[in-house]
Amino acid sequence: MFNQNIYGNELNKIVLFSDNAVFKKNKKEILLEIYLSIDESSLNYTKINDEWKTNIAMDLEILNKRGKKINDLNFLITHTIEDPDSLKSEKFYQNAFQILINDDAASFNAKIYDKKNVSEIIKFHSNLNKITPTRGNNYISDLEIAYLIKNKSKESVESFTKDSIEIIPNPSRSFGKENKNLYYYIEIYNINSNDLARLGIKVLVKDSNNKIIISENYNKSLKQYLNQLFGMISIENLINGEYFLEIVFEDSNSVYMSNKKKDFNVISDFIASSNSTNLSNDELLKAQISIKSIEALDEEFKVAQHFATGKEKRNYKKLNSHQEKVDFLTQFWTSIDSDPLTIENESRIETINRFHFVNKKYSIGLKQGFETDRGRVYIIYGKPDEIMRDQYDGDIRPNEIWRYHNIEGGIIFVFCDVNGSSNFRLIHSTHSKELQNYNFIARMRR
User: Where does 6-266 sit in CATH, by number?
Assistant: First the structure.
């Protein structure tokens, strides 16, 4: 899920990464932490008393489980630099906000903007993970992924400190050449001192296929109320890809109690960090694709092939190396990008979303949804404006008619379960490039 939390682009918009986690402040209050990493070169600065300053505003709405606003907050970040002419796009400024919320809080809406450029507002929504209980009255906080954890010092930033340590968050959750160590932080709250006094801890790194790549085990004796759990995992030997960090809690008899899980990415060439480059559209797209294995690239081409020419399909089959397939898919998606001015490739995102939808909705037996006629039509043309089922009377097999009002002045697709296998085949369409059979009703008959 790389870069789902990056906002903005290279056209003078704020470029930032965001992440969040929740912890218990005390027995009654919950602390929401929001982490931001902002490209300094995407901000506007004003010289004040020999210093260059910028003001970044964040407007926050806290929502309850029913989506009703329960809190409205406003923050202002003042950031100072020495000289805007010396700024480089590889440097990110980091900040963290700590907000007290109640148990009813379930999500938040955020608006972030440069006070000197209020027309460019970054908006995003995020759900909040719950502080979940184990058996008894032990509770587990959210999981925070960080660049670095070190002892607290006089220079430590207050919003990054917890007790005696300082945690530098990694809002992008991406690691690579310049960041070879992943740090993690979690809290265990032993509300009742009579509960289990000892926990078994498993720290696991899994790949996108849920295969365990790294496994560490140890025990922890609980103190009353607050217990900090943090550590470091070397990701130097991991290949490019999407991974999951999972921490599993067991009782003294090795019986499962609870777990916490978060995804992260290993990207050797493109690192979204405090020292990363400001990626162009093509570079970002290539970074998103390059994290995949060869098998995952082949799976992505199954998505892309619905829009590929015969020549492109034949050319892809000839490719063998990972890099060749990454380059091919990057060029292909770029060529059909519906809005090249935005940093994300909307055509790719929408097509992949459609692919996953049809695989859930229209898979039949061993045939995946994208391999069915309804799945293919949905991927290419999108969600129909109308779906009419079993429109004809008499001895007619189950059928569906899909209508699209804004394609070629209005078209239909007629699907029928011609074999009684629940696999609805396309038997007629009024689209100029699709199967046309105006005697389709005869084919519907049993």
Answer: 2.60.40.2550
